[in-house]
Predict the 3D structure of the following.
Amino acid sequence: MPVALLAQALGIIMCLLGTGMSVWAEDGTAAQKPAQAASPGHGDAPVNETTQLTLGSPQHPVAIPRLSAEKFSLDGDPAKWLKIQAIPAPFSKKFSGMMKLGWREDGLYGYIHVQDLQVKVDDANPWQQDCVELWLDTACARHIDMGTDCFQIALAPNVTLGAGKCIVVAPLATPCPEQTVARWKPTSDGYAIEFFLPAKAFNVTMAVGTKIGFNYSIDEKGKSIEQFYADKDINGSFCNPSTWGMIELEQNSESVPSSMNLLPSIPPAVPQRNSVTQSTVEIPYVEQTCADILKRRIVVGYRRAYLSEIVADLAERTGIHISFPACIDHRCMFTVEDQQMTVRQVLERLAVQDQLELDVQDDHVVIWKNTDDQLLAQLEKKFNDGDVEARCESLYDLGLLGDKRIYSLMLRGLNDDQSAVAIMAISMLDAHFETLHDGVQSSVWVPSLLKLISSASLTAYKARLIHLLSCCRDHNATDLLVGLLKDKDANVRCQAAYALGQSRDARSVDPLIAMMKSYLRADASWADAIVRDSAAYALANTHDPRAVDALLAFSHENEDFYSDKNLQVVAAYALGQSHDPRVIDTLIALLKESEQKIRVAAASALGETRNPRVLPALFGCYRHWDAQLQMTAATASAKIGDTAADSINAAAKSRDNYTRFAASAALTMMLDTRAVPPLVNFLKDPDDAVQFRSALYLAHLHDKNAIPPLMRYIRQSGSTNQMVAASALGTMRDPENMIVLMDLLKDHDATLRMSAVLALSATRDPAIMDALIASLNDPDKIVRFRAISAMGAINSPNIIAPLLDLLKDADPTIRSSVVFALEKVADPRIIEPLMGLLRDSDSNVRADAGMVLHQMTDPRVSRRLALNHL
């Protein structure tokens, strides 16, 4: 399990379960935890009464952005919603809830991310357990009872069948559930649902200015934990449209991002109870170059890990910048284990295992995967001699290669006189963004990209072209990019700001500061706020002293301009990225802020400085009652590196249990085995949650002490921790564990067999294929579903034949689950079988196959779909 994923998963667990620990005083005796005031929700600060009555009212409807994506697939992927602001939840006294909405002419789209580790569902009456309820008054009549234009829909995750289709129930005056399209998938902290409400089915015309009566409720165990504008359980609001809020479709188009996340994950806000102890001890700090980092020795424990996981882990632990073409990820699993290896030796071991080429430059490393000369010659000939379709196909195939020699042909594709060819080149280059940025002399691309950005025929691709232009870091593009800061499309403005930050042209600093200030007003829209935040991160990337001064001003409340808590959060994260030592004192001061999300942002940013001077302040956070702050501080201190290891180890021996546990977590993230003794002791803690987290840490360290408690959790049928424990046991990838897990596949308890399947899939060991294939015939349907899903997660060509056999299964839900498993395998052999399913007897299977086929970017698939439609 990579360090970054471990930190994220355990941070979420700590946040949701609370600290999960008894509270100890400094002397080790039991102490009373300070009482926590009732929190209005886990979003922003409470709104005042005037705001609460205004947001979402008929007089002030909430504006819903128009989606400009050419294809909008429902797959539960949050990436395409990153730039869409969550709608407010005024009834829950939150400026931002968990629901995001967008519209197109064909209907209303939505995304919900629910934090709930114990999901329980009532198939017939979802509102009695965990679900999302939606109410719409498409005539906006606001009558006291529901007429023919009023609808109620309940969406719930289908935990029985696994990720895929939601349970959809339409109880009151609504179309049949089949007219609502909804998909769900589990997340590390709960579940996510993505849905589509067709305009025709709901009697509404989707156009700018259309107003719709609207309400929603996120239910947990039958009780609402978040609502939009009315309490569904008071005054019959669940069937009284006059009490619902209102949304309005706005013109401002929000493009769906393809590869750039402009906003960090912002944790929920809770009241502050304690201030943080702060030290002024000065520790010398020396900035490390790439050459220095490559010489650094670290503990390595990778077992069947993907390249992206290893690269992310090395970046998290050492600060090294490594890039590679995304298309070569998941093509090989690496195993590298050693108590002391230099970072260079780790990379060289990877290169040997998969015949990779390392390109070590002054400040980063680029990894390439060389391609056979003959294949490249064939693709070049096809591009030179072929028609439009042949040129598109050659560019598609080139985009799947990790060889730096493909880019000359890609550039020719951008310059092709046929827009279809240029668009294919743009689409395939998205997966090469990092290597274009770091590994190619991209200045030759600038004239072509500037020309395409100004092309009227490629307006829909302007933001993506600007994103590619940011790779070039060419000052000749500065004037154009500064002009695009005023473009009417918010996504274009965001990408222009990002590109200016990457260029590090001193001329871009003042326009970016002016751009931020222009959006510092109380009536700024959500789109304006996103653009403002993009400018903040761009300023940090310039590494210009003027930019740091501006961000320091934005990081605290200032009488000279309008400010809000979200701006302070973004400024704090951005200051961490600036790597300017002047920001440290300001970030330490922000640890005392009353808003939790500001404290967490400051702690995270302190880790990004990688300066040992921040350690005393982070150690103070170890003792804070806020579990999210504890975990963030642990992660941040681990980033400081070897110079911090001894200090963290000393903290792991503290008399304060909070400090010991957080320090043990930090040592775990550094793969420092000195964390083992305190973690073994925490396995005896009276709190079950502490035991569980300690076992997860030990599993990450591949320590055998983790096996008994993890096995105990796996055997606790229905336990919250059962699935996580199974995955953790699998990620240890220990041969002895494999034997135990194989035996569990024969257990009489179906839940144990299902947990064993999950754990085995996490091992990524090809040896488990026979066991998973055998589980396809398990008498329990859920076990069969898990086995199908596990085979898809392995992403091996060997899974295709057994899964294709299941397409003949009489159960349509089995056939649908196979479709989603095959989706993860980029193999041309799946195209014909999926095309055949377009004529399946079951409408859901046909829809699933069509959705998967439409998501494929291979031009041959698009052509087959067009011919099939004819």
Q: What stands out?
A: The chain is about 45% helix and 15% strand. The radius of gyration is 27 Å.
